[in-house]
Amino acid sequence: MNPNFLQTPIPYLKGVGPNRADTLKAELGIETYRDLLHLFPNRYLDRTQYYKIAQLQPSGADVQIVGKIIHLKTVGQKRGKRLVATFVDETGQMELVWFRGHKWIRENLKINEPYVVFGRISKYGSTFSMPHPEMELLSEHQQGVKIAMQPIYPSTEKLVAKGITNRVVGKMMQQLFIESKGQFPESLSNSILEELLLISKSEALFNIHFPKNQNLLAKAQFRLKFEELFFVQMQLISKKLLRKQKIKGMPFETVGEKFTGFFENHLPFQLTKAQKRVIKEIRNDLGSNAQMNRLLQGDVGSGKTIVALMCMLLAIDNGFQACLMAPTEILASQHYTGLKELLGNMDVKIALLTGSTKKSERTLLHNQLENGNLNILVGTHAVLEDKVQFKNLGLAIVDEQHRFGVAQRSKLWHKNEIPPHVLVMTATPIPRTLAMSLYGDLDVSVIDELPPGRKAIKTVHRYDGNRLKVFGFIKDEIQKGRQVYIVYPLIQESEALDYKDLMDGYESIVRDFPQPEYQISIVHGKMKPADKDYEMERFVKGETQIMVATTVIEVGVNVPNASVMIIESAERFGLSQLHQLRGRVGRGAEQSFCILMTGHKLSEEAKTRLQTMVSTNDGFEIAEVDLKLRGPGDLMGTQQSGMLNLKIADIVKDNQILKTARYHALQLLKEDPRLEKEENIPIRKAYSRMMQNKTIWNYIS
């Protein structure tokens, strides 16, 4: 086969032509033979069975019938017309109906000729009908490629309107296999094929488009899913290895007095085993000659800040500066306050830079950064401005990194001649399967235990009918000197509605918790930032006992004295949001509670979410359930799910295949990093072709 055959532009395929090619490109991104070959079916229909009209049931199923058209008529309706054909076999009659494309259909239909029709059955009165059936003359049907399982390809309204139906796409696919003689270059090595008992690339492609039976289809799917995930992992792993070879880091060889002084005299509590393990992993990275790129995952309250501080002290011990970047002013200020408190009277200069930092303070800050007097800078996006220049930035830490774009993160890289070491922190637990796919090029550390003295938060689900009891419980907790959050959902579509929800709730709480005995703060999206900060501040200082808020408090606020989190209309929140909100309490030594309030009408999915929250505090377990419920796209947000533009594999359903693929990619790159062995030539060719197409992976950092 000519190696460039699959690069042929799609208009050259018999039966396509320029107009269809334009539609295929606009709707499905198909420009070449290869793109068409990799348009995999969504599902399959069993075409081995032919029904008689007398056997039909109003089940809404797709069926196949042999018969002939005896009569055609056009019927007027409220809007436009429909074309109706009377279709008969020896057991009865039914209707075939078209709502558009009448002229072309009328001209091409043959009366009294045997046809095979295929489509979804509906019933009006006593008559069965089939709207927009797929049709083929019986004589042609008997000669075509015998497909027992009929593939159903992805489609759009525009494709159907332009006459590119599933049948037309199937015909194009048949033509492509005729022109290629069904021969496609192998892209895996013999040893992988033999070890995993995989069928060849040509067999897999034939059986994904024209499967004879379920067994062959399953083999084809496994082979193609493995291959897709294998090459994704190849790209990630080789990117990681390349970065380690190419991008030299600044080795932090000294463990100096700042690090040991803090460890011996300022540590507020003993480090957990998990924290010690993570610090060791990071120290190994920082001591090597390669630039560190590590993802640190740890649930809310697991003690990531201490780990971050100890890494920054290592940088200072080695003559470098460090910075910590957070997505919001509130979070940046909290980090700053927390770090200052931990450092106590140590000789470490630390400063805060946000959008609200005064000009005079900024000038001073810029000077101190450039002359090296400032050791640690904590800030928001303001840190990325060109004006902010470091004397010698050695370590950059990014908190809640999914809230920063890639371009913003790469700006940090350019804050020093030699790129700084990078530590990315997140409290949003990322399921292992996703981490392997999205962050497979980063080293991953996990803090998976809570600091001593912290008690697990008790979570319960209560219906609105129990509200009085819940209010009684809140009063008891306030009596003990505790504080309470009451959170209302915020659903983008309707700010007015949300505001009403919040205000109604606020009014009923004010009635039940009257002043002066109770003081209540309120925070929502319509307030000015200064007013928001003022209300938050009152709550942090303990001047108010109840904070009524929308989800603006999801990230950040640290109030150890707050021990109760009430989430109203909890069924309207996603799992990760519920988990993040629950993490706002349980920060002190007292027992904390999270109460999920809902109405009685709950969808199955909402019930699963609530049951998951009640049964576990483990963020990773919750993230796995969330991934199953929502899929990777919703979980990571659009800008990151687009990175996994997978054609056939699904990282949730196929996570076992993903693990196998990662294992084999790792083994291969260990044994033959440049893919020079003869048996790996097919892999090298396929891999270099993908790399020419500059995929998504370049953008993950």
From TrEMBL:
PROSITE patterns reported for this sequence: HELICASE_ATP_BIND_1, HELICASE_CTER
Organismal lineage: Bacteria, Pseudomonadati, Bacteroidota, Flavobacteriia, Flavobacteriales
Family designation: Belongs to the helicase family. RecG subfamily.
Listed SMART domains: DEXDc (SM00487), HELICc (SM00490)
Primary enzyme class: isomerase
Catalysed reactions, semicolon-separated: Couples ATP hydrolysis with the unwinding of duplex DNA by translocating in the 3'-5' direction; ATP + H2O = ADP + phosphate + H(+)
EC number(s) given by UniProt: 5.6.2.4
Protein name: ATP-dependent DNA helicase RecG
